[in-house]
Design a protein that fits this description.
By secondary structure, this protein is α+β, with helices and mostly antiparallel strands. It has a single domain (about 15-125), classed as RRM (RNA recognition motif) domain (Alpha-Beta Plaits). It is about 20% helix and about 35% strand. It has helices at about 40-50, 55-60, 75-90; strands at about 15, 20-25, 30-35, 40, 50, 65-70, 95-100, 105, 110-115, 115-125. The strands form 4 sheets. Strands 5-6-10-7 form a 4-stranded antiparallel sheet. Strands 1-4 form a two-stranded antiparallel sheet. The protein has a two-stranded antiparallel ribbon with strand order 2-3. A hairpin with a 6-residue loop joins strand 2 (about 20-25) and strand 3 (about 30-35). Helix 1 crosses helix 3. It starts with 14 loop residues before the first strand and ends in a 10-residue tail after the last strand. The model is unreliable at about 25-40 (pLDDT under 50).
Length: about 130
C-alpha cells in the first residue's frame, strides 16, 4: 500500500496580470501589450523579516558590516534580499540562512518546547551601513 502526499505548493503572494494601454499619435487605435507578472511585495516584506537579532556576538560582527535578522521559517535568500533592500535601501553582497532547532525544556515538572525558527546573516559592502534605532 502506498501513501500519496499532496505536493502542490501554495502561493505566498498575490499575482496580478497588468495590461498597458498605448494610444498611437493621430489615431484612436488602442494597442494593448502585456506587462510581465507583477508581484505585490508588501506582504512578503513584512512577513519575511521579523526583527533584528540583538546579541553580543552580532553587535561585534556589525563592525565588519555583518547583520543578523530573525526571519520567517518559509523565507528564502531571494525574499530576504528583497526585504533588506526595500526596508533599508541597501543591497546585500551575501546572505547565509541558518535554521535554529526547537529545544525541549522542563519547567515546574511540565515538558515543553522553546524557541526555534530561522535567522539570516546579511553581509554588506564596506561603504554600506544599517542603523537600528
Amino acid at each position: 500500500m502506498s501513501i500519496s502526499f499532496n505536493r502542490k505548493s501554495k502561493r505566498k503572494y498575490k499575482i496580478f496580470r497588468i495590461k498597458r494601454v498605448i494610444f498611437k499619435r493621430g489615431t484612436l487605435k488602442r494597442v494593448s501589450s502585456r506587462v510581465p507578472l507583477k508581484i505585490i511585495m508588501s506582504d512578503i516584506i513584512l512577513k519575511t523579516i521579523k526583527n533584528p537579532r540583538v546579541t553580543e556576538k552580532v553587535s561585534n560582527a556589525s563592525a565588519q558590516n555583518v547583520y543578523t535578522f530573525n526571519i520567517a521559517v518559509s523565507a528564502n535568500k531571494k525574499e530576504v534580499e528583497k526585504a533588506v533592500f526595500s526596508l533599508y535601501k541597501v543591497k546585500p553582497v551575501k546572505i547565509n540562512i541558518l535554521s535554529i532547532p526547537h529545544k525541549n525544556i522542563t519547567s515546574k515538572g511540565k515538558k515543553g518546547t522553546r524557541g526555534g525558527g530561522k535567522k539570516a546573516v546579511v553581509f554588506l559592502k564596506k561603504e554600506d551601513k544599517i542603523e537600528f534605532i
